[in-house]
Design brief:
mainly alpha, globular
Length: 144
């Protein structure tokens, strides 16, 4: 199941405004992440330039492929299977989503609206769910 066309449109338009500042947003994301959840520093090292590039690329990749969930979901699930979530708990994932949503609001500024917030929240939840589904599949495959 994918996201509605209206949700995708809102996220695409919002991301188009943010994308030129995506690298700056990635830096702030890691600052906020470590301030909120210092134990994740080992998982997401802030000074790792490659990690920041991957984070920016990942978000852009997801947004660019939201209209093709039949292709995107299996890719996200495989990423989850391969350890993208690195054994993060559901609460840690939810916290990461809230941090990201807060930064989106900041970077959107006057363009932020309740509708945009809701669309991004759905997109984040949808993406994390697909990743988590893949991680759970890998966990059960290893246990079985």
């Amino acid at each position: 199941m994918g996201l509605s066309a209206q949700t995708i449109e809102l996220v695409e338009v919002s991301y188009a405004r943010i994308e030129p500042r995506a690298r700056a947003m990635a830096l702030e994301f890691y600052d906020d992440l470590f301030e909120t959840m210092p134990t994740l520093r080992a998982v997401f090292p802030r000074d790792d330039a490659e990690q920041r590039r991957l984070a920016v690329s990942f978000v852009g990749f997801v947004i660019a492929n939201l209209r093709s969930p039949h292709r995107l979901v299996p890719l996200l699930e495989r990423m989850g299977e391969r350890g993208l979530l690195r054994d993060l708990t559901h609460e840690e994932l939810a916290s990461i989503g809230r941090i990201f949503l807060s930064l989106l609001r900041k970077f959107e500024g006057v363009y932020w609206s309740l509708e945009t917030s809701h669309a991004w929240a759905l997109c984040i939840t949808w993406t994390i769910t697909a990743l988590h589904h893949g991680a759970e599949h890998a966990h059960f495959a290893r246990a079985g």
